[in-house]
From TrEMBL:
<dbReference type="GO" id="GO:0005737">
    <property type="term" value="C:cytoplasm"/>
</dbReference>
<protein>
    <submittedName>
        <fullName>Sarcosine oxidase</fullName>
    </submittedName>
</protein>
<dbReference type="Pfam" id="PF01266">
    <property type="entry name" value="DAO"/>
</dbReference>
<dbReference type="GO" id="GO:0016491">
    <property type="term" value="F:oxidoreductase activity"/>
</dbReference>
<keyword id="KW-0560">Oxidoreductase</keyword>
<feature type="domain" description="FAD dependent oxidoreductase">
    <location>
        <begin position="6"/>
        <end position="340"/>
    </location>
</feature>
<dbReference type="InterPro" id="IPR006076">
    <property type="entry name" value="FAD-dep_OxRdtase"/>
</dbReference>
<dbReference type="InterPro" id="IPR036188">
    <property type="entry name" value="FAD/NAD-bd_sf"/>
</dbReference>
Length: 374
């Protein structure tokens, strides 16, 4: 295989920027195309929660790699990774939730995850949060959060230092055979390889050149509320809500609509019901009186088997999308693996992520990412 010398990356989110940097560090001449500004897609809307408490081999390998890199960046004082335990719980009476949680913890422990099962009393002793309603909880010590905007700023700098060219403010389309990018002026520039890291918009870009991918967007919501909280990140599997510490108090989320959204017609503002329910959930769990500072919505990408779509779709044309809400926490690993694939290095993206495992016209239900049900 010829090693590509000139590579185009479409999309300057966490995934595109990491891939662009790793390609450039690996010797390629890289141009990044971004229709807005770096981070203006879903990365700028992410909650920034990161953990490695996964139950499947492939997820564990990717998460370990990503967490290692977040911590290296922190260790080099390039970036702050906030170490905070990750608590996932099922409420009393949610027997199905408790069973799924306990089975998930068993599988996590088989994979050597630093995670243990605790009851409400123990949880209450370890953390200052409301635990009376908890039936069963898992606690992972290897977790934390990071500011997605800081990650974007860091990787823009790192890319620029490696000579990556940025073309921003321009929505592009792509060509295959030979690979190329069609700019806003209609002019096509050929590249040795093209990486489509355009988030949920990757589907439209690839469908336009005859390579449909099995991706459906769904809407998720989050808010930041002022309050006094320095507890762990908490995911309540019974009501599907989560919260994590934030400099203002708490970042809370869910509001997932497990139905296909319209790429071109979705509401980026949070729904009133979400703000009400999420604020109540924060009040309940943190035992504080939160004041909502801001709230928003975004799109996540679902695939039929909940694994992402990462790898080649055509000769020298690659895609990286379909994260089920895990794209930020996986970006440091996906960038490395995909760049290695594009540059023909020994190491590469797990076969499980091969986008060609689907035809692209599959019927499937949207399932959100944090759930334990397999
Ligand atoms: C409310 C919410 C909370 C979330 N919380 C978390 C979390 O805690 N942890 C986590 O890991 N993930 C979280 N996610 C998911 C996370 O946001 C995404 O998985 C991740 O940001 C995807 O990154 P990306 O680089 O693939 O896509 P994006 O960040 O969307 O980047 C794609 C870029 O491509 C650009 N683009 C699109 N089309 C074109 C075109 N034609 N030409 C040029 N540029 C184009 C877009 O403008 C965009 O900037 C959350 C998502 C939401 C909505």
């Amino acid at each position: 295989m010829d090693v590509p010398e000139r590579v185009a990356v479409v999309g300057a989110g966490a995934v595109g920027l990491t891939t662009a940097y790793d390609l450039a560090a690996g010797g390629a001449a890289v141009t990044v195309f971004e229709r807005g500004t770096p981070g203006s897609g879903m990365t700028g809307r992410a909650a920034g929660i990161c953990y490695d408490a996964y139950a499947e081999d492939v997820d564990v390998a990717v998460a370990d790699r990503a967490m290692r890199r977040f911590r290296e960046l922190d260790g080099n004082h390039e970036f702050e990774f906030h170490e905070v335990p990750y608590v996932f719980l099922a409420r009393e009476g949610d027997d199905a939730g408790a069973t799924a949680l306990s089975e998930a913890v068993d599988r996590m422990q088989v994979h050597d995850r630093s995670v243990e099962l605790v009851d409400a009393d123990e949880l209450g002793e370890r953390f200052s949060m409301h635990t009376d309603d908890v039936g069963l909880a898992g606690v992972s010590d290897s977790a934390g959060w990071a500011d997605p905007k800081a990650y974007v700023d860091l990787f823009v700098d790192k890319c620029e230092n490696e000579g990556v060219e940025f073309r921003v403010g321009e929505a592009v389309s792509i060509r295959t055979d030979p690979p190329g990018v069609v700019g806003g002026d209609g002019e096509t520039v050929d590249y040795d390889a093209v990486v489509v890291a355009a988030g949920v918009h990757s589907r439209a870009l690839l469908a336009a050149v005859g390579h449909p991918i099995a991706l459906k967007p769904y809407r998720a919501q989050a808010l930041v509320a002022e309050c006094e909280y320095d507890g762990p990140t908490v995911y309540d599997a019974t009501d599907g809500s989560y919260l994590r510490p934030h400099p203002a108090g708490v970042l809370a989320g869910d509001g997932v609509e497990a139905v296909e959204a319209d790429f071109d017609d979705w509401d980026p503002a949070a729904d009133d019901w979400f703000v009400t329910e999420s604020t109540a959930a924060v009040r309940h769990r943190t035992e504080t009186d939160p004041t909502v500072e801001r709230a928003w919505a975004g799109l996540c990408g679902a695939t039929p088997d909940r694994n992402p779509l990462v790898g080649p779709v055509a000769s020298d044309v690659y895609v990286a999308t379909g994260w089920h809400g895990h794209g930020f926490m996986w970006a440091p690993a996906i960038g490395e693996l995909l760049a290695a694939d594009v540059l023909g290095a020994d190491e590469s993206v797990p076969e499980t992520f091969d986008p060609r495992r689907f035809d692209g016209d599959e019927e499937f239900e949207v399932v959100e990412g944090m759930t334990f049900d397999e």
